[in-house]
Amino acid sequence: MRRSPLLAASLAALLLTPQAPAQDKGGDAAAADKSDAKDAKSELPPLPEDKTITQSAVIGGKAIRYQATVGKLPVYDGKGKKIGEVVYTAYVVPGGDARRPVTFAFNGGPGASSVYLNLGAVGPKRVQFGDKGDAPSDAPLLVDNPASWLDMTDLVFIDPIGTGFSRSLVDEEATKKAFYATEPDIKYLSRIVYDWLVKNERLRAPKFVMGESYGGYRAPRIAYELQTQLGVGVNGIVMVSPYLDPAATSGSDALSPLPWMINLPSMAAGHLERQGRLTPQAMAAVEAYTRGAFATDLLAGRSDPQATARLGQKVAELTGLDPKLVARLDGRVDEGTYLREVHREDQKVGSVYDSNVDAYDPFPNAAERKSGDPILEGIIAPTTSAMVDFITRELGWKTNARYNALSYTVNQAWDRGTPDDAPVSDLRKAVANDPKMGVLIVHGYNDLSCPYFGSRLIIDQMPRFGVDQRVRLGVYPGGHMFYSRGASAEAFKADARTLYVR
């Protein structure tokens, strides 16, 4: 997700000293850890010990019994001092052999917990959120998720420091340096994956990394870190609505046509869906125009008045916006203008995460939009209430700590750096290094925070890696959280199954 308060643009690199593994600490370090823990307890109440219960869910038409666990893993600095605690939620089907896969899932932000993939996409239980008609006051009731992936992989949902119940045990400046920048984020989260595998004796299992939004930025980098630094091979990577190339989508006033090209197909998809005409064939025509005549006419600019006129006319046709407005913009429609103007007659505004999920504009007569995003602000209540109720009441993991589904504090503290540290390089290296690794990148058509066409262009520029479809793209009806729509969630699972069943 990009250009929203919680889903920032590009991030910078700060190096974190590699953490000393918990199992490697000697007596002095262990004593120091107890002292650190004692100091931390004087300020923060201790988190509960790991808790596991047995549950069941009907998934894919079959009842599956599984163990649900909420647990914590420590984070240490290079001197063996405990500086943080990461809380995770795991779902494991007992009795599986060493070949049962395990998938580690991360959401984005930076500042988002893993609740969205957990209770929205692939976990065994779900709560409805993120689709048209959903409201913050809807009862946060968990029901079986028929599209859960638990019938083909165990699942571990990891909340980075500052999200969920995960927390730092050091001061503000040390926290920012250790956790709130690109490189330390990748290093300590990779180590958490490693520590979970060791703790649960799962190093022989096939391993997959899944990330949504900025989690999609994390996923290939974590996979490469595991593969080359921690000695853990990764069988597959799944990137959901990923934030892949900050440089390509930044600077809407820049000479590059890429920001306009990347946005246009998702705007057109929203218009086609409103008309009931959204099909892969219709979108193929939009993509062909975007790669061809749109880019050519855009670059011609005012040197060719006919090109500018063609551009405005065609963009108005594709987006459903007023042709006069589009003409004034020379065919360059930013997402903010689109989301407000396309719903202007209803005095509503659309969401950057799905342009067809809207809300009433509280200030419809204001020159500029003054309200928050309909999805971003609408998902906090159902996801937080459902997750806290599940953890504290159903699981019995009792804590008075606050659960952060989305942390503005983390997002605002994040070191944003430059847009040059895209994860595509690590993705290429990880795939090239392992001929058996598969990659699936998925998007919703209507998403303007991380538009699918950016990933389409990136994949088309990647090597073949020996065979076709080593890196595959799936696009489904819906937006950033397309999985809130049942049919899209099922199509996503069907595409992902090819990674797990090979």
Helix and strand layout, with pairings?
Layout lengths: L26 H17 L7 E9 L2 E15 L5 E11 L9 E5 L8 H8 L2 E2 L16 E2 L9 E5 L8 E2 L3 H8 L2 H18 L7 E6 L1 H17 L5 E5 L17 H17 L5 H21 L4 H15 L3 H6 L6 H7 L6 E4 L2 E7 L13 H5 L1 H15 L13 H6 L10 H10 L4 E7 L7 H9 L10 E6 L9 H15 L2
Parallel strand pairs: 4-7, 4-9, 9-10, 10-13, 13-14
Antiparallel strand pairs: 1-2, 2-3, 3-7, 3-8, 5-6, 11-12
Residues in helices, as a percent range: 25-40%
Largest sheet: 10 strands, mixed
Binned strand content: 15-25%
Name given to the CATH architecture of the largest domain: 3-Layer(aba) Sandwich
- Unreliable spans are 1-42
Computed CA radius of gyration, to the nearest angstrom: 23 Å
* Secondary-structure-derived class: alpha/beta
CATH superfamily of the largest domain: Alpha/Beta hydrolase fold, catalytic domain
Using the coordinates shown, work out and report the CATH topology of the largest domain.
Answer: Rossmann fold
Q: What's the count of strands?
A: 14
- What is the end-to-end distance? 31 Å
> Mean pLDDT, as a whole number?
88
Spell out the helices and strands N to C.
HEEEEHEEEEHHEHEHHHHHEEHHHHEHEH
Give a summary of the structure in a few sentences:
This protein is an alpha/beta fold and 502 residues long.
What brief labels describe this structure?
single chain; alpha/beta; Rossmann fold; ten-stranded mixed β-sheet; two-stranded antiparallel sheet; 16 helices; globular
